Amino acid sequence: MSTEAGMSLLEQLKKVPDPRIKRTRRHELMDMLVIALCAVICGADNWVDVVQFGKAKRAWFADFLKLPNGIASHDTFARVFQLIDAQVLERVCMAWLQSIAGKVEGVVAIDGKTVCGSRDGHNTALHMVSAYATTSGLCLGQEGTHGKGNEIAAIKALLDTLTLKGCIVTIDAMGCQTEIAQKILDRGGDYLLAVKDNQGKLADALKEFFTEGEHAGFGRLPVSRYKTVEKAHGRIENRRALWVTNLSWLDKEIHQRWPKLTGVGMIERQREIDGKLSSERAFYIASKGVTTAESFAKAARSHWAVENSLHWVLDVTFREDECRVRKDHAPQNFSALRKFALALLRTDNRYPKRSLRSRRKTADRLPEYRASLLGLAPRS
Fold it and tell me: How far is 70 from 27, CA to CA, in rounded Å?
């Protein structure tokens, strides 16, 4: 497997600089990166697992890697991955994945997740903000920060690394900031942002507009409407979406604060579970990429793929929250390895009907499948 430019994964990984003093290097950085990635694909959760996997597959790795001094110890793996620049490793991995996936289109959901196991004594746990392409199922990038309170800064830094032409970027209410909206536009995308009380005047204006409109009518304003009903597992859920592109009613000062704001919407969710009813409303703003209530409802719903298809999978299939890798850059680097491994498994079409868990076991069992995932070829 190689990129459009013909660059293999191994060639791409050579771009990661070795942080060690040259005279102290007993193991090739390339060897350690490939062993760690391959081990994570096959089920490794920590550096001890990585080393045990490497030793068990040493003869197989020797066909592809130099291994001048065998397999490094778990202490060496831990020390090296503490030193590797996490942002460089992430960029290298994500660039290679994007070259395989081709042009990214549709919804890109940005959301954060705390890696609970990375908490060390009084140190705050690592909080990872990820950009997830909901159509392709690929993580396009991530930015780490210590503590959820720094999530806004992490979102801005992450956006600076993305190419978003033709994409609609969805972010929950924490990311509803004018600077973030402008960054999305600057990167070529459009935004769909949830609005809550952190944007008080805007939130109040939307609540008042849709509440009064529902009660007394919207007059001559054109309103796009879309409705869905889902029944599953004893639950009935009605979703109703309203989308308005005529914003003449909106306070001019509020309107002008938001770059290229072209529409606002409301989604009402009514759930019935075991005869008990509940209802909630959510409000959104967007630029020109959202044009109808249907496109609005589908984009807003797609945002939750980052929770269900990324965060949940990392916790359940890759047991991310149980990982005790904690020091320096190591937690963020291990997180990058997990997401890279997940993407490689998802983009492979060899066993399309098998679960991710099954594919991981297959990679551990079948050397040819393992090699195909990473595009490894025997050394000449």
Answer: 8
pLDDT at 156 over 50: yes
- Give the Cα-Cα-Cα angle 262, 266, 270 (nearest 5 degrees): 160
Cα–Cα distance list, 354 to 307, 346, 357 (Å) = 21, 10, 8
Mean predicted lDDT score pLDDT of the chain: 86
Q: Are 72 and 47 in contact (CB under 8 A)?
A: no
**Most confidently modeled range among 215-219, 272-276, 344-348:** 215-219
Which residues touch 253 (CB under 8 Å, ≥6 apart)? none
Which 3-state string (H, E, C) describes 36-100?
Answer: HHHHHHCCCCCHHHHHHHHHHCHHHHCCCCCCCCCCCCHHHHHHHHHHCCHHHHHHHHHHHHHHH
8 A C-beta contact, residue 155 and residue 171? yes
| DSSP, residue by residue, 192-216 | EEEE-GGGHHHHHHHHHHHHHHHHH
Residue 273's nearest CA partner among 308, 237, 230, 228 is: 237
Closest by CA position to 57, among listed 344, 324, 281, 367: 367
CB 284 within 8 A of CB 194: yes
Pairing of strands 190-195, 167-171: parallel
Are 333 and 86 in contact by the 8 Å Cβ rule? The answer is: yes
237 closest CA partner among 308, 301, 313: 301
Distance CA(313)–CA(304), nearest Å, equals 13
Q: Which helix (H) or strand (E) holds 243?
A: strand 235-244
Angstrom distance (rounded) from CA 140 to CA 320: 18
Full-model pTM? 0.76
Helix 74-83 with 29-41: angle, nearest 10 deg? 100
